[in-house]
Design goal:
2 copies of one chain form a homodimer. Chain A is globular. In chain A, 17% of the residues lie in helices and 26% in strands. The first copy, chain A, has a single domain, classed as Beta Barrel (Elongation Factor Tu (Ef-tu), domain 3), CATH 2.40.30.70. The first copy, chain A, has 3 helices and 9 strands, in the order H-E-E-H-E-E-E-E-E-E-E-H. The longest helix of chain A has 16 residues. The interface between A and B is large, with 75 and 75 residues. Strand 1 of chain A pairs antiparallel with strand 1 of chain B.
Chain lengths: 180, 180
Amino acid sequence: MEDNLLKELILRPVGVVRSALKTPLLQTGDADLELPARLEKIREQRRQIKNLVSELVIDPGLEGMLEGIEDFSHIVVVYWPHLIPAGRRGLRQVHPMGRKDLPVRGIFATRSPARPNPVLISTVRLLEREGNVLKVQALDAVDGSPVVDIKPYVEIYQTVENPRFPEWLRQIHRDLEGGP
Amino acid sequence: MEDNLLKELILRPVGVVRSALKTPLLQTGDADLELPARLEKIREQRRQIKNLVSELVIDPGLEGMLEGIEDFSHIVVVYWPHLIPAGRRGLRQVHPMGRKDLPVRGIFATRSPARPNPVLISTVRLLEREGNVLKVQALDAVDGSPVVDIKPYVEIYQTVENPRFPEWLRQIHRDLEGGP
C-alpha cells in the first residue's frame, strides 16, 4: 500500500505493571476445557480482577508528566501484552474467547490480545498516586507488562449512543453474567 | 529502570485514514489567538467533525481480520498522529488545550497528541464496511494518519461509575458547551 504503511512506528515503554496477576487470563491450554469448566474459570478470574489492586510504576524521569492525574477518578491504561508470543501477531481469525461453539471472527472484530499491533486498552479506577507510582483497581494486565501510555478518562472521547453488538458477544455476556 | 523499559516495541500500521480533515485541530500558531476567538474556532471544528465521514483503508492483505466487525455499531480506532513533530514526544507539561488561563498539567493528565508514545484512541460510529474499507463518523484523525489497530467497542471494557474530573476540565466543557 502507501508509504505510511511501510514505516515502522517505535514505542518506548514509559513504565511497567506490578500485579499479582502472573499469567494471561485465557491460555492456549484452556481450549481443551469443556465449556462449563471454561466459563467457570473465566467467571472466577473476573471476580478476582474486579478487586485486584495493581501498580503502574512509571519511569521516575517522567514523573512530571503525571502532574494532576490524581484529580481524575479513572484513567485509560495503554499497555503491551508481553507474554503473547510475537508469532501470534499474524493470527487472522479466531473463535471469540477461544470458544469453538461460537463463529470464527476476524481479529479486528474481537478483543483478542493476539493482534498485529498488540496495544491493549483498559479503563480503570485510579485509587492513589504516590510520586511515580499509580495504584489502580481492576486492571487486567499481567505483572511485568510494559506501560505504553496513560491518559485521563474523559467522557467526551467515549460518547456512544445506542451501541449495537453481534449475537455472539451477547451470548458471551449471557454465559458470564447470567440473565436473558 | 528495568529491562522491559529498555526494549523498544515496534508497530507496523495496518491501514491509513482518508479524511477531509487535513490539519490537526489545534495548532501551535493558535496559541496567539485571544481566548474567545480560540474557543469559537474549537467549537466550529467540533461541529464539523461531528458530521465528518472518514474512511479507514485497511491493508487488503489483512481484510480477513475485519470479518464480522460490521455487526458492531461502534469501533475503537487506534491511530498515530503523524503530523505531530517527533521532537514534541518529549514534552513534559502543557496548558490544557494550549490555554494559558488554565494551570499547567503533566502530559499524562491531558489528551494532548504530543506524548511519549502518541497512540491516540477514538471511539466512533461504524457506518459501513466495504471489503477492506471502513466508513466511520466523527473521527478526529487527520488525513494520512497511520491506523495502528481497530477494536470493537465492547461496553464491558469501559464501565466507569461516578467519574470525577478536575476543575480545569469542567471549565473547558463549560466554555465549549455552555451551561453552568
